[in-house]
User: Which sequence fits this backbone?
């Protein structure tokens, strides 16, 4: 039995999501290998090799893998699939982009967003925006899973796996990379932050969002999130969105400011350890999941909170 | 350019799903059903492409029960030209749906398949990518902008940390993300007109596609409930509680 974990990285450093998916792989059992595909893979592979319990790290380097083209990832992973019983990918936007292609090429189901490994063939995943949990048993010889990293603890470091290179696939003929705009931020990554401060539609404007949410986040060393309503209204960029259709987060502390708590938002943050809600509407659904609720207008409450934090 | 738009009938966006007591699934009896929101966005984008003179024909297709005809009528009322229902009472997995759609593509020869990125019932986010793989077509998933020019689709995609732009040769599969557009409401005259537009019904069996399930649903359960905590009076109290809880 062998499991292949596709590493999450940004062509510079390995992301913690990889450690979490390794934990899911270990729950399935057998040898665990990690594939680092992209550019600058040598340095990233060296970090991946330190994860405890990993047999080997494979690298594949090409411009198209660095650009995250789904067709390139499909060809690479399908080519390696013969040696594995399960292929696990973090359920990031990137993982969700290529993993279904791999499953289709292998003629197996993809089990999306796995939050629990019950056994080598049985998995739990959320459906209906997290309002139900489905336990499914796969009859496929090879399992293709995307794994929700927040549902697993990060695997420890202390290993020293060998690193081998795999040959990169040919460049996809019909997909051409034009460019990308990745937001550079000094703040922690939303998916991995210990504290997240999120703002909702109550902010009323992008200026207000920046004036209220960002200083509080910076004071706490937190990542910034937003509700779908705030993103749709243009108050915050799309990659800030926390929710079923955005990012799923599970920080130690989640502070929701001016967020009513629509089902789809709750699905993205309800596994946080401690939830704080600040909202002037005492009947807002967010209070039903909040450990600490402050019924107040954020305009008064956030400055008070800033000064109470010292 | 012919555009194929697959659509799915699902529980209405505003209805909270409830798990059946026997843990066999979600209770859909007497629940309001609608077109999956991401599918609506895909239909809207196709209609906009037609209004710009880029698309010449929009074919909506659904794989599902007889009642999915209502969903297809909604697509027709929004501006699709004709519709196809591949009728089945089976609950098909994404790979099976992708195989069925591949058969429809073979018959219809569209240059673009425009579909939602995810259905809000199964939340798989897989069918579009699987269809692209089965067809060996390029894909641009999670689109927030689509421009068709010179036999290519220039697609801005929502990715981790920002936006990416790809040029994909047509034919291609594009999946719609939330911010691609805001779907229109069908007007009453258009709803009336949609009743006269062609809607073909084919039995799933007539396609000769292997749609056998690969997964067995063992059980469907409710997630652990999070109970409401306490209300604090001031920001100062809040900070004190958070310090006690060890999260600050």
Assistant:
């Amino acid at each position: 039995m062998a499991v292949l974990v596709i590493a999450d990285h940004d062509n510079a450093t390995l992301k913690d999501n990889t450690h979490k998916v390794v934990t899911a792989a270990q729950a399935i059992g057998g040898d665990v290998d990690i594939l680092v595909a992209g550019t600058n893979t040598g340095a990233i592979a060296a970090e991946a090799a330190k994860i405890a319990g990993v047999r080997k790290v494979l690298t594949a380097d090409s411009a198209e893998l660095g650009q995250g083209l789904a067709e390139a990832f499909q060809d690479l992973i399908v080519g390696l699939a013969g040696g594995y019983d399960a292929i696990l990918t973090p359920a990031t936007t990137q993982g969700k982009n290529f993993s279904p292609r791999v499953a289709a090429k292998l003629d197996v189901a993809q089990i999306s967003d796995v939050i629990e490994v019950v056994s080598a063939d049985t998995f739990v995943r959320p459906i209906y925006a997290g309002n139900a949990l489905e336990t499914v048993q796969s009859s496929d010889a090879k399992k293709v899973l995307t794994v929700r990293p927040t549902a697993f603890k990060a695997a420890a470091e202390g290993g020293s796996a060998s690193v081998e290179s795999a040959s990169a696939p040919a460049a996809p003929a019909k997909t051409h990379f034009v460019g990308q705009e990745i937001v550079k931020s000094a703040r922690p990554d939303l998916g991995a932050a210990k504290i997240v401060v999120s703002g909702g539609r109550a902010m009323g404007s992008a200026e207000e969002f920046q004036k209220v949410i960002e200083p509080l986040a910076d004071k706490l060393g937190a990542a910034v999130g937003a509700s779908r309503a705030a993103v749709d209204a243009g108050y915050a960029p799309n990659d800030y969105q926390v929710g079923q259709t955005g990012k799923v987060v599970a920080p130690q502390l989640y502070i929701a400011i001016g967020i009513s708590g629509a089902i789809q938002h709750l699905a993205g943050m309800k596994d946080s350890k401690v939830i704080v809600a600040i909202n002037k509407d005492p009947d807002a659904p967010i209070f039903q999941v909040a450990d600490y609720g402050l019924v107040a207008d954020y305009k008064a409450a956030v400055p008070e909170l800033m000064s109470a934090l010292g | 350019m012919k555009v194929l738009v697959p659509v799915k009938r699902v529980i209405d966006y505003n209805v909270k799903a409830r798990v059946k007591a026997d843990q066999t699934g979600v209770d859909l009896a007497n629940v309001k059903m609608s077109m999956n929101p991401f599918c609506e966005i895909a239909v809207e984008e196709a209609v906009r492409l037609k209004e710009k003179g880029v698309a010449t024909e929009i074919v909506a297709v659904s794989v599902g029960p007889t009642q999915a005809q209502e969903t297809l009528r909604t697509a027709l009322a929004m501006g699709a030209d004709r519709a196809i229902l591949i009728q089945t009472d089976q609950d098909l997995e994404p790979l099976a749906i992708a195989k069925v759609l591949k058969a429809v593509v073979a018959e219809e020869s569209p240059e673009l398949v425009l579909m939602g990125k995810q259905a809000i019932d199964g939340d798989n986010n897989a069918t579009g990518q699987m269809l692209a793989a089965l067809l060996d077509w390029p894909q641009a998933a999670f689109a927030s902008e689509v421009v068709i020019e010179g036999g290519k689709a220039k697609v801005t995609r929502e990715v981790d940390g920002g936006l990416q732009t790809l040029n994909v040769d047509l034919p291609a599969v594009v999946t719609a993300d939330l911010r691609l557009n805001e779907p229109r409401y069908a007007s009453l005259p258009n709803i009336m007109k949609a009743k006269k537009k062609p809607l073909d019904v084919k039995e799933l069996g007539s396609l000769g596609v292997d749609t056998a399930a690969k997964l067995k649903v063992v059980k469907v359960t409710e997630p652990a409930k999070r109970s409401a905590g306490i209300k604090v009076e001031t920001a100062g109290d809040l900070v004190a509680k958070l310090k006690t809880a060890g999260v600050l």
Q: What stands out?
A: The longest helix of chain A spans residues 206-220.
